[in-house]
TrEMBL record:
Compartment(s) where it occurs, according to its Swiss-Prot or TrEMBL record: Cytoplasm
Protein name: Acetylornithine aminotransferase
Family as reported in the entry's similarity comment: Belongs to the class-III pyridoxal-phosphate-dependent aminotransferase family. ArgD subfamily.
Organism whose genome encodes this protein: Gulbenkiania indica
UniProt entry keywords in alphabetical sequence: Amino-acid biosynthesis, Aminotransferase, Arginine biosynthesis, Cytoplasm, Pyridoxal phosphate, Transferase
Length: 404
């Protein structure tokens, strides 16, 4: 059966919770993407910080293809070799002793929040159940994770939401001190707020969170769904800060485009998830784990991580040069290859217009709220692709400030 597909098909058959771009990508290679009409785009979006090694990286294709010929799925009634290899690699490379695998960042955070409450109940009683998160945070789209996330727009219409969640001001130590108590079971922080505007945490704020958690017998959770697996310039952003959490969540770049999420924690905390307390039908499946293991192998090298820092500098320099000419941004911020350009007050609320202008010049970018244009290209993006993407972005900005 032959089915003709156009962008209009989306509006006819899909639930309308997304508003995708006006073109349909059909092929990708490295940091270039082609649409149905054969137009070539430079990809500065990276699938929202997912395609860590670009599109169709040959070693990832080979890892997936090889595993696809062996074993796809056996469920967690059994274990499998790829999941054990991946867990071993992650625990050897991080603070963690134990790993739990799922399919997405939201599921990884759901597991982390449940584990924090279970650990507190096991050791201190059920009254110790409150979770502190940051305003403007984003932790996923399940009912629990949107509640912990600090953006009310994501919980509108879904009440009643889970209780026991309090939000503090990001990077405000006094706000955190005022909210934490002996009823607090966990403090959850993104080292860089991604959806909230690509805003890095202050080191002093994370240090205070670590000390306050220790003081109140609470767990410190770092949501590294967006910052993890090389995007910060270190394997995980906590390494950039030198502050170790009790639980870390990872997804996005971990699979290089294949769906996988992970929760990493210590031996002591992990014990609270005994047999039957939590699970995931597809979590830790051989296909996802085989790909993620190859991603980890390729990313966790000095050459790759140093390259992320060098690419950050090149992209930042280019964005600042564009801004010097057009004056559209009041800040360029971020860490590694998770960067945000904050629109000047004269253009406030128009980040989506910049995205649309970039589309017209065959460049894929992102937004982070109404005022920030976000960039999350592949960690191995070629310098020539950065330069070409910046040239297209400048052309888009020129159209944006002087519309035709």
């Amino acid at each position: 059966m032959s089915i003709s597909i156009t962008r209009a098909t989306f509006d006819k058959v899909m639930v309308p919770n997304y508003g995708p771009a006006g073109f349909i990508p059909v092929k990708g290679l490295g940091s270039r993407v082609w649409d149905q009409d054969g137009r070539e785009f430079v990809d500065f979006a990276g699938g929202i910080a997912v395609n860590a090694l670009g599109h169709c990286h040959p070693e990832l294709v080979a890892a997936l293809t090889e595993q696809a010929g062996k074993l796809w799925h056996v469920s967690n009634v059994f274990t499998n070799e790829p999941v054990l290899k991946l867990a071993t690699a992650l625990t050897e490379a991080t603070f963690a002793d134990r790993a739990f695998f799922c399919n997405s960042g939201a599921e990884a955070n759901e597991a982390a929040f449940k584990l924090a409450r279970k650990y507190a109940a096991d050791h201190f009683g059920t009254d110790k159940h409150e979770i502190l998160s940051c305003k403007n945070a984003f932790h996923g789209r399940t009912l629990f994770t949107v509640t912990v996330g600090g953006q009310p727009k994501y919980t509108e219409g879904f009440a009643p939401v889970p209780a026991g969640v309090t939000h503090v001001e990001f990077n405000n130590i006094d706000s955190l001190k005022a909210a934490i108590s002996d009823r607090t079971c966990a403090v959850v922080i993104e080292p860089v707020q991604g959806e909230g505007g690509v805003l890095p945490a202050d080191k002093a704020f994370l240090e205070a969170a670590r000390a306050l958690c220790d003081q109140h017998n609470a767990l410190l959770i770092f949501d590294e769904v967006q910052t993890g697996v090389g995007r910060s310039g270190s394997l995980y952003a906590y390494m950039e800060y030198g502050i170790v959490p009790d639980i870390l969540t990872s997804a996005k770049s971990l699979g290089g485009g294949f769906p996988i999420g992970a929760m990493l924690t210590t031996e002591k905390v992990a014990r609270s998830f005994g047999i039957g307390t939590h699970g995931s039908t597809y979590g830790g499946n051989p296909l996802a784990c085989a790909v993620a293991l190859k991603v980890l192998e390729l990313v966790n090298t000095p050459a790759m991580l140093d390259g992320v820092r060098a690419r950050h500098a090149r992209l930042r320099q280019g964005l600042e040069a564009i801004n010097a000419k057009y004056g559209v941004f009041k800040a360029v911020r971020g860490m590694g290859l998770l960067m945000g350009a904050v629109l000047a007050d004269a253009y406030a609320g128009r980040a989506k217009d910049v995205l649309k202008a970039a589309e017209q010049h065959q460049l894929m970018v992102l937004v982070a709220g109404l005022n920030v244009v976000r960039f999350a290209p592949a960690l191995n993006i070629e310098e020539a692709d950065i330069d070409e993407g910046l040239a297209r972005f400048e052309a888009a900005i020129a159209d944006f400030v002087t519309p035709r």
